[in-house]
Amino acid sequence: MTNKQSIDYRYLFGPVPSRRLGKSLGVDLVPHKTCTLNCIYCECGRTTHLTLKKDVYISIDQIKKELADFLSHDPKLDFITFSGGGEPTLNSGLGEIVHYLKSEYPKYKVALLTNGTLLHLSEIRKQVLDVDLIIASLDAASKKNFDEINRPHPGLNLSKIIEGLITFKEDFRHLFWVEIFLVPGVNDHEDELSKLKQVLDLIHPDSVHLNTLDRPGAESWVVPAEKKSLAKIAKYLHHADMIRAHPVEQKDHLCEGGLYERLLSTIRRRPCTGEDISQILGVQLHDVIDRLDALKKDGAIKKIVMPRGVFYTIRG
Ligand code: SF4
Q: Does the pLDDT at position 316 exceed 70?
């Protein structure tokens, strides 16, 4: 089935195939790179708006309008996921959107990908209680590594963030996973891992996931962890799950026309390989490569070679 959209979507993307979330429709709740952190590995680049201010960054009515249009086609989805290139909990209308989806479209499951920095605030915790799956990041248990990896807003306090995750998990009745991003040479040493393990014991997440660099990050010196080391650390951290690319057959996609626009909008969110784009947009690989070559010739995009392949990103 192909969706015939009647409006242009600015805040929906995908559905994106994901190993953990299956077929997931992404929803942006904040403008690109509006975040409480400025992680060195962020695949969306450096944070341009580092803030703790909660606000209606994107109109809730506009997001509802796009969701209503997309869901009117009754698409098959595994999740509707708040994610994108910023921190979704910064949008003060998050609770309203969660309520809208749960009351108007109860058959769809809702997921939230968050950096977890605001879950110590009771008003944020209340807003997300009905979300079916929350994946919260926690890359460090020591202030030194938190500062080095996540480069937080100066108003954030790591102990408070960890307390927030512990308190939230006590009240939350749905799935709660913690994701740790490993940066070799920074948070993969014994001391940090032992502290992280102690914190995980206090949080009691339903699952722990280990992630590492897969596409170009905000800082070019960040490299992926080796598989062997990942496997060893995963075993140490209560048999954490290692996140790996797992292609899912992609048939539905967001819109029909404007391949150039869709392609640019996809790689503006995060660097992608030709294969990634072909899957996300449901377009033949050779068509994608033709367009990418043309955009590269025009100077609109550039190539970056990574262990997983050649990635395309917007020329900054
Ligand atoms: S990885 Fe997530 S939390 Fe970190 S800067 Fe990027 S958007 Fe923000």
A: no
pLDDT of residue 136 exceeding 60: yes
- Taking the C-alpha atoms of residue 90 and residue 155, their distance in angstroms, rounded to an integer, is 14
The answer to whether residue 254 scores a pLDDT higher than 70 is no
Residue 6 within a domain: no
Residues 121 and 157 in one domain: yes
Q: Does the pTM exceed 0.90?
A: no
pLDDT over 90 (residue 13):
no
Ligand 1, closest atom to CA 113?
A: 2
* Closest residue CA from atom 7 of ligand 1: 86
pLDDT at 292 over 80: yes
Q: What letter would DSSP give residue 40?
A: T
Q: Residues near ligand 1 with C-beta < 6 Å?
A: 35, 37-39, 42, 44, 47, 85-87, 115
Q: Is 268 found in the same domain as 249?
A: no
Q: Indicate the residue among 218, 236, 254 that finishes a domain.
A: 254
Please give the backbone phi and psi of residue 204, each rounded to the nearest 5 degrees, phi first: 60, 55
Report which of 83, 88, 209, 191 is spatially closest to residue 138, judged by C-alpha positions.
Answer: 209
For atom 1 of ligand 1, the residue with the nearest CA is 42
